[in-house]
Amino acid sequence: MRPRKKRQIWFEPKVVYFKPRGVPLKLLKEVCLSADEMEAIRLKYVDGLDQIACAGNMKISQSTFQRTLSVANQKIADALINGKAIKINFDEKA
Question: What's 34-92's CATH class?
Answer without folding.
Answer: mainly alpha
